[in-house]
Structure formats: C-alpha cells, structure tokens
Amino acid sequence: ARLVVLVSGSGTNLQALLDACDDPSYGARVVAVGADRDDIEGLARADRAGIPTFVKQVGQFTTREHWDRALADTVAGFEPDLVVLAGFMKLVGAEFLDRFGGRVVNTHPALSPAFPGMRGPADALAYGVKVTGCTLFVVDAGVDTGPIVAQQAVPVEDDDTVETLHERIKVAERRMLVDAVGRMARDGFTINDRKVRFGR
Ligand code: GRF
C-alpha cells in the first residue's frame, strides 16, 4: 500500500512507520511526506530516507479552502492508498476529505472521545485522569471525532509533567500506529456505522 504521511513536528511517528516499511512483509511504503511548515525534523527524516517531501503553508494561500485544495492536489499526485496524519497540526477540510474520505487516519494522544484537540496530554493531566492513551481514528469532518481504528491505554504517574506524559504516550502511540496501519495496508478495512473492521 502507498502511504502519504503528513507531519508538523519531530516526526517520531513518521520515523516508526519508515522503520516498519523497511520490512518487505509490512505491506506498505511511504511514497511522500508533507508538512504545513518548513524546517521541521519530520521533513529531515523523510529526506534522510530519500522520500519526496512537500510543504503547504496556510499563510501562502489567500483562503483556507485554497490551502486545502492545494494540499489535496499535491497528495493526490502521489496516488496514496492511505493518508496518515501523524502529528499534523492542521485540520484538513471538506475538499481534502471528499478526495480521500475514509482513507485518512489520524493519531491523537488521548483516549477518544476524551480530550480532543491540540492539548490532549495537557488536558488529561489537568483533569487528573489516572489512565490516558492514544487513539488512531478515520478522519471525519469533526475534530478528533472519527471512527476509532485502534487505541492504547497509558498510565499517568503522580509526578508527570505534560512532557513526561506525552513522551510515555508517544511510545505506545508509535506501536499502535505501526501495528494498525500495517493491518489496514495488508488486510484493508471497512467502516460499518462507525465500527472499523479489518479485512476487505
Ligand atoms: C503525537 O503525539 C501526535 O499524536 C500529536 O503530536 C505528536 C507528534 O509527535 N498530535 P511526532 O511529530 O510524531 O514526534
């Protein structure tokens, strides 16, 4: 399966996918990496792996819709089977979802439906939960609200900071992402009234 991965930061989830794809039995390869900003480690990781990259900055476009369309056009050019949002910090829009709807997955560092949005680990810590985690879901028009593909639970320690908690989440998240994307790539998946099932 052909994967296009979108990132906005350090790209450790991307790196986990790149490493997994080195195994021919994994059944997927990253054909391009895109970002919404320059000079991030995620793009450097793609460069080191010899994978084409592209950047689409919202500020370069007159409207958000134009950005969304340009992003969709560029992604479409790589003919992805699956688009993986791995720490991508922008919401893709209606046109993007029309083009790739049902084939866009996003990883979120909280146990959906709890703590959606940009501050999942911080919100979990502030709330005082004892268990949080990460979620892989199929992107829909909402914010972190799509059908859930996989989840992993992660304990919150009493002395956690946002950083220590998020790092612990990311260890589980990388494994969750690699396992689930591999299954989707090899076995396909279907969505029946929000329930995601592997297998064609
Ligand atoms: C991940 O935890 C992702 O869920 C969140 O930001 C983090 C990105 O980490 N949105 P990285 O860029 O993959 O290292």
From TrEMBL:
SUPFAM superfamilies noted in UniProt: Formyltransferase
E.C. code: 2.1.2.2
Gene3D superfamilies on file: Formyl transferase, N-terminal domain
Site for Raises pKa of active site His, residues: D144
Origin superkingdom: Bacteria
Pathway membership: Purine metabolism; IMP biosynthesis via de novo pathway; N(2)-formyl-N(1)-(5-phospho-D-ribosyl)glycinamide from N(1)-(5-phospho-D-ribosyl)glycinamide (10-formyl THF route): step 1/1
Catalytic activity entry: N(1)-(5-phospho-beta-D-ribosyl)glycinamide + (6R)-10-formyltetrahydrofolate = N(2)-formyl-N(1)-(5-phospho-beta-D-ribosyl)glycinamide + (6S)-5,6,7,8-tetrahydrofolate + H(+)
Pfam families xref list: Formyl_trans_N
Active site: H108
Binding-site positions, N(1)-(5-phospho-beta-D-ribosyl)glycinamide: G11, T12, N13
Keywords: Purine biosynthesis, Transferase
UniProt domain Formyl transferase N-terminal: residue ranges: 2-181
Binding site for (6R)-10-formyltetrahydrofolate: R64, M89, K90, L91, V92, N106
Job of this protein: Catalyzes the transfer of a formyl group from 10-formyltetrahydrofolate to 5-phospho-ribosyl-glycinamide (GAR), producing 5-phospho-ribosyl-N-formylglycinamide (FGAR) and tetrahydrofolate.
Similarity comment: family membership: Belongs to the GART family.
Protein name: Phosphoribosylglycinamide formyltransferase
Organism, scientific name: Nocardioides aquiterrae
